[in-house]
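Handoff note, outgoing to incoming analyst
You'll be picking up this chain. Sequence as last confirmed:
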Amino acid sequence: MLNIRLQRVGRKNDPSFRVIVTDSKWKPKTGKFVEIIGSYDARKGSPVIKADRAKHWLSVGAQASGTVHNLLLDLKVIAGKKVNVLGKKTPIVKEAPAEVVAEKPAEEAPKKEETPASAIAEAVADKPAVAEAALDKPAEEAPAEEILAEKA
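Most recent structure output, in case you need it:
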C-alpha cells in the first residue's frame, strides 16, 4: 500500500519536509520513496505540492497522512473535511469569527465589586465629615469607592 506523507529533510531547529509517495512498509528515515511530489517549510508555512501528481497517486489508491491531507485541503487539491492530527485528548480549537469576539466584551459588563461594611467603617472612622455624609445617604447611594479613595 502506498502512502503520501512527510519526510523531514531540514537541519536541527529548522524543520522542512518533503512530500513523498512511499510504500507503507518503508520507514520515514530509510530515505526510500517512489516519488517526491512537493515540499513544505514548517517555519514559513508554505506548502508546494504538485497537484496533478497528488491527484494521480490518490486515484491509484495511495493514502494521504493526516497532515498531508490537511495541506491538500488548504491548497484546494481535494475536497472534504480536515482531519484532527492531534491526539484524542487535544481537541481542535475552532476560531471564532471576529464579529462574535467584538460583541462579547460589550455584552458582558464588568461587575462592580462590593466593599464590605467593615472597610467602609474603617475609612469613615478617620474622617468625621465623610462619616456624616455617608450616614445621611442610604447605603445604596453612598459610593464606597469615594470613601476609600479619600482615605488614601
